[in-house]
Amino acid sequence: MDKILIEGGNRLVGEVTVSGAKNAVLPLMAASLLVDGWTTITNVPNLRDIDTFKVLLSHLGCDIESVGPGTLRIRTVNVPSPEAPYEMVKTMRASVLVLGPLLSRFKKARVSLPGGCAIGARPIDLHLMGLKKMGADVSIDHGYVTVKAEKLKGAKIYMDTTTVTGTENLMLAAVHAEGTTVLENAALEPEVVCLADALNAMGAVIKGAGTETIRIEGVRELKPVEVRVIPDRIEAGTFMVASAMTRGNVLLKDCPLGYLESLSVKLREAGAEITEEAGGVRVIGDWPIRSVDIKTIPYPGFPTDMQAQIMAMMTIASGLSVITETVFENRFMHVGELKRMGADISVDGRCAVVRGVKHLSGAPLMATDLRASASLILAGLVAEGKTEVSRIYHLDRGYERIEEKLKRLGAKIERVKE
Ligand code: UD1
Q1: pTM for this model (two decimals)
Q2: Rounded to an integer, what is the distance from CA 259 to the centroid of its chain?
Q3: How far is the CA of 154 from the centre of ligand 1 (A)?
Q4: Distance 125 CA to ligand 1 centre (A)
């Protein structure tokens, strides 16, 4: 297993290019199940979650080709056994995204129930409620959910919690349904819009993606297309925080600043300078960092996927910051590790109170989930002395060569075998 070693103290200076968004690629890969012919996806990052999804699609019977760096071609002729097994779903919950398209095109799907994960219970009841409303027969046995429908029918579906993959799954199911499906309280995330745009290019009729009400008119057939993945707003956000907290001066190329308003507002409040220029977005940090309060909420609110990283920054701010996590019930696992570096944080339920300290000190740390891993790397960049982050397989799920990108910006960081 690999680990990451960091010697803290260097300012980050230079340019970094933001990769394609993991959370946009996965639903696009699932969408390829709907089409007879090759779907081409470009700007695909090299990540473990994407490899896991490739294995799942191959298992289902899809042909997958990597044609050059960042380009994937996927073709689905038939799916003899539309089943997503436990071994794959347990390593990546987003595997559940095959449910909608398999049901829609092959009339049946059997997917292992994801169960809880490190950051919360994360049920899929809303995905299943929506499919039932469209006329699917849903049954659960031996840890698997089986959905069947000869022909899905359009329906009005209200989701009482905003769910990103739930909205995507139902959109994927509804494109071939008979009549109109209306998704109410739909997720507004840019990745949902990216999927809707791709499906529309394939011939689907989807209106309102990016708003709370999405209308999908069912169509008989979709045609294969080439789609480009939008840039990863969470990777971009992580580098923005990295620059801000190291007193850096970093130009982010291909940075989707328009998707990062809630983060930019907070970084500016904390004292960072963020400007758009011809080549990208420049983030300049300065000390002392001012403490800011954060509350995670669904897009366009402050992303839960940036909560751990901003907390790392607040550990060295001047003053007190209250960080409230409203999306997932157990997303403070990084707190224990940050405290081992000298951070002053107390947690009460969904609130963390961070009192800024003068400095963090490097320590051996254990990554617990994807974004928590990123926060430990950020903390290591500003800590005095050496930090060692183990279990970085979490990091490789969602960050493409993060240590190489940080090294080019001047960080003293390397990946070593444990
Ligand atoms: C997606 C993202 C993940 C991000 C999260 C929230 C992907 C592949 N992953 O995850 O990176 O952290 O959005 O922005 O895009 N819920 C229910 N019932 C359901 C579905 C969800 O109660 O049927 C709840 C969840 O437990 C959670 C909340 O809704 O509390 C939001 O979860 P959701 O938006 O579904 O997260 P994911 O789509 O799994």
Answers
A1: 0.97
A2: 13
A3: 23
A4: 11
